[in-house]
């Protein structure tokens, strides 16, 4: 039962299916025609408003020392994750964000680049960041160990948080969907309403988790400047 339940996250049944599954990661960008971005319409106007809001927020988090165009990198990360989260809600479309292969590919290079930039260009600041201000001298060795461990696990927590939230929602929808064939007609309407409510919740989670990933990445970047 558990094998069948988790098989909805299996990305590969053959080499062909494996490649087609991962192509769904870029499906939104591939399928949208160029005219969609050039001609003003409701979706593009709404998306422009969202990106402008994110740009202003990320710029505030990064501070005045950030380079021009840095915010667009995090907006791109937000867009990629959100599109993949939404695509995974459609039937028979592979959810790439539920796999650590995808989430670690995003979080690990970002974290490594932040650490390399910080330690090479702001070494003194990075050492000072290991000991929070006002820490007693007795606790300083312990705080260095704690801060070092918290820095090292950051890419893992980013990746696991996103993948776990996607897996949890999809598992719940799969469990409810599998029980539909064993229920009476009177209870089937309740199940459908529950599925619609859960799908709405998962849509909100898709946006929230992509926003959390982008904001935390922005905060990690601001710490090394």
Description:
By secondary structure, the protein is mostly helical. The protein has a domain at 77-224. Helix content is 75%, strand content 0%. The protein has 11 helices and no strands. The protein is globular and about 70 Å long. The termini are far apart. The model is unreliable at 13-17 (pLDDT under 50).
Lay out the secondary structure.
Elements: H1 2-6, H2 15-23, H3 27-31, H4 34-38, H5 42-62, H6 70-87, H7 100-121, H8 123-129, H9 140-152, H10 154-178, H11 185-223
Helix pairs in contact: 5-6, 6-11, 7-8, 7-10, 7-11, 10-11
Summarize the structure.
With 225 residues, the protein is mainly alpha-helical.
Assembly context of the chains = single chain
Structural class: mainly alpha
State which percent range the strand residues make up.
under 5%
Q: Which geometry do the CA atoms define?
A: globular
Report the major sheet. Answer: none
The helix/strand order is HHHHHHHHHHH
**Unreliable stretches, pLDDT < 50, 5 or more residues?**
13-17
Query: Treating each run of at least 4 consecutive H or I residues as one helix, how many helices?
Result: 11
Approximately how much helix is present in the residues? Answer: over 70%
State Rg.
Answer: 21 Å
N/C terminus separation: 50 Å
Could you tell me the number of beta strands? 0
| Mean of residue pLDDT values | 82
Keywords: ATP synthesis, CF(0), Hydrogen ion transport, Ion transport, Membrane, Mitochondrion, Mitochondrion inner membrane, Transmembrane, Transmembrane helix, Transport
Organism: Ladona fulva
Subunit structure: F-type ATPases have 2 components, CF(1) - the catalytic core - and CF(0) - the membrane proton channel. CF(1) has five subunits: alpha(3), beta(3), gamma(1), delta(1), epsilon(1). CF(0) has three main subunits: a, b and c.
Transmembrane segments: 20-39, 72-93, 100-120, 158-177
């Amino acid at each position: 039962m558990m094998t069948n339940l988790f098989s909805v996250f299996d990305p590969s049944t053959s080499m062909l299916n494996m490649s087609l599954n991962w192509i769904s990661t870029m499906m939104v960008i591939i399928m949208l025609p160029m005219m969609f971005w050039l001609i003003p319409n409701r979706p593009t106007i709404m998306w422009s408003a969202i990106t402008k809001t994110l740009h202003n927020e990320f710029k505030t988090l990064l501070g005045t020392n950030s380079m021009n165009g840095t915010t667009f990198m995090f907006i791109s990360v937000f867009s990629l994750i959100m599109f993949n989260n939404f695509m995974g809600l459609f039937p028979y479309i592979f959810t790439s964000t539920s796999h650590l292969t995808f989430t670690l590919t995003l979080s690990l290079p970002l974290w490594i680049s932040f650490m390399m930039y910080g330690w090479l260009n702001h070494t003194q600041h990075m050492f000072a960041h290991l000991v929070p201000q006002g820490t007693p001298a007795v606790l300083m060795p312990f705080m260095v160990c704690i801060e070092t461990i918290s820095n090292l696990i950051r890419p893992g927590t980013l990746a696991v948080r996103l993948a776990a939230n996607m897996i949890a929602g999809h598992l719940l929808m799969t469990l409810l969907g599998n029980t539909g064939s064993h229920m009476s007609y009177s209870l089937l309407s309740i199940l459908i309403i529950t599925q619609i409510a859960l799908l709405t919740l998962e849509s909100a989670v898709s946006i929230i988790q992509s926003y959390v990933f982008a904001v935390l990445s922005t905060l990690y970047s601001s710490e090394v400047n």
